[in-house]
């Protein structure tokens, strides 16, 4: 669609140029025939005068038309090539984005994280275990709000899980860096796709892991709203807040 718009715009420019040159070329021809008449002359000199007139007046005009045509054609080709390169680059990035995101998602959903966590009580996976641990061991600090305390408690848990998400982070960090290098109008779209593709609990624990064990991921996530507290931790925060209000 965009390529068609460029070609259409170039055709409009050519039409304007040639229309203007036609008018400019037609004016001296009209004056010539108005002054000297139109007909089949008997003298060779009259035909020579006519040829000299057309050569001197219309020759430069036709030369100018050729130059304009060449310039407009080059502009159209350059614009079309630039757009095709942009589309090819976007298609390449989209393929890379979806392949990387799929690999991260499959890795986070692998059996590695899907194990029972308590005797007689199965939460189903590591992420649920981690969130329940935060709820059961919530650490309240002074001079901070309860949301910050929740993040700090989660960091205390993840400190015992070094190298846990290294394979996922090896894919996630380059992906996020490439997203940050995209135009601003595309960045939010890709980040939204990540949020829809990987559920919040997994993204939360990846972000917590980056705060503790991966300075590269922590730095990359700056300025990105990557995750929020899991639902059960949010409920714990609300519970503590309500207890504080009652006292």
What does this structure look like?
This protein has 247 residues and is mainly α. The chain is built from 9 helices and no strands. It is rod-shaped, with a radius of gyration of 36 Å.
Biggest sheet: strands, sense, closure? none
The rounded Rg comes to 36 Å
What is the average per-residue confidence, as pLDDT, rounded to a whole number? 82
Helicity, in percent?
Answer: over 70%
Computed structural class? mainly alpha
Tell me the total number of β-strands.
0
Count of runs of 4 or more consecutive helical residues: 9
The ordered string of helix (H) and strand (E) elements is HHHHHHHHH
Distance between the termini: 64 Å
Q: Shape, please?
A: rod-shaped
Low-confidence blocks of residues: 1-8
Query: What percent of residues are in strands?
Result: under 5%
Features of the shown structure:
single chain, 247 residues, 9 helices, 76% helix, disordered N terminus
Task: Summarize this structure briefly.
The protein has 247 residues and is an all-alpha fold. The protein is built from nine helices and no strands.
Spell out the blueprint of helices and strands.
Elements: H1 2-36, H2 44-108, H3 126-136, H4 146-158, H5 166-180, H6 184-197, H7 200-212, H8 215-220, H9 231-246
């Amino acid at each position: 669609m965009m390529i068609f718009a460029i070609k259409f715009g170039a055709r409009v420019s050519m039409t304007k140029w040639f229309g203007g040159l036609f008018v400019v070329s037609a004016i001296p021809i009209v004056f010539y025939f108005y002054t000297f008449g139109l007909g089949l002359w008997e003298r060779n000199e009259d035909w020579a005068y006519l040829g000299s007139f057309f050569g001197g007046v219309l020759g430069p005009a036709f030369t100018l038309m050729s130059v304009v045509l060449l310039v407009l054609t080059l502009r159209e080709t350059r614009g079309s090539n630039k757009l095709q390169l942009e589309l090819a680059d976007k298609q390449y990035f989209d393929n890379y984005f979806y392949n990387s995101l799929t690999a991260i998602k499959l890795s986070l959903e692998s059996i590695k994280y899907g194990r029972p966590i308590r005797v007689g009580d199965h939460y189903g996976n590591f992420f649920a275990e981690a969130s329940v641990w935060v709820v059961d061991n919530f650490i309240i600090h002074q001079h901070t709000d309860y949301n910050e305390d929740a993040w700090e408690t989660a960091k205390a848990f993840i400190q015992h899980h070094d190298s846990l998400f290294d394979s996922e982070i090896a894919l996630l960090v380059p992906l996020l860096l490439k997203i940050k290098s995209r135009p601003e109008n595309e960045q939010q779209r890709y980040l939204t796709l990540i949020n829809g593709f990987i559920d919040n609990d997994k993204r939360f624990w990846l972000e917590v892991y980056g705060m503790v064990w991966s300075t590269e991921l922590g730095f990359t996530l700056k300025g990105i709203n990557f995750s929020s507290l899991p639902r059960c931790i949010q409920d714990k925060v609300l519970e503590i807040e309500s207890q504080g209000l009652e006292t």
